[in-house]
Amino acid sequence: xxxxxxxxxxxxxxxxxxxxxxxxxxxxxxxxxxxxxxxxxxxxxxxxxxxxxxxxxxxxxxxxxxxxxxxxxxxxxxxxxxxxxxxxxxxxxxxxxxxxxxxxxxxxxxxxxxxxxxxxxxxxxxxxxxxxxxxxxxxxxxxxxxxxxxxxxxxxxxxxxxxxxxxxxxxxxxxxxxxxxxxxxxxxxx
Length: 190
What we know:
single chain; Lysozyme; two-stranded antiparallel sheet; 8 helices; 2 strands
């Protein structure tokens, strides 16, 4: 019985690996997150194969959203300038997926036990979401800039061009595209 409990505990913890130390280097990330229970490279490659989104784009999206922090959340607003209050949004986890969007993903993919704090689930969500934007908005699967804009603005917001007047969205998309290019170069050497 004790052995079963230990195995279950290890399985639960396997998706909650600590953030990699060098998030600017895809090879270092994969090296740090490779072990008996966790293998981020395998998870990224499986998602890439399933949805046709390059590993570099998937990883750059996570880097831009959470910097590989499993429990990342937006900061809390301050009431009267000092009292911690509500958060700006329900974004959470590696993918910074909103509650409603995550619920939709779980329902549409049948992955009802997927968790936003589990790398394998989060990268699968990002691949699925980018694929939806590829199909709905005609964005090329390797276009990290526009895939990120659609990720940030949502499929409808992207189609309406909401991001055009949002410098934060454009800066994030540029950062994600630059990181995807860097990761792609690195992945060829490791």
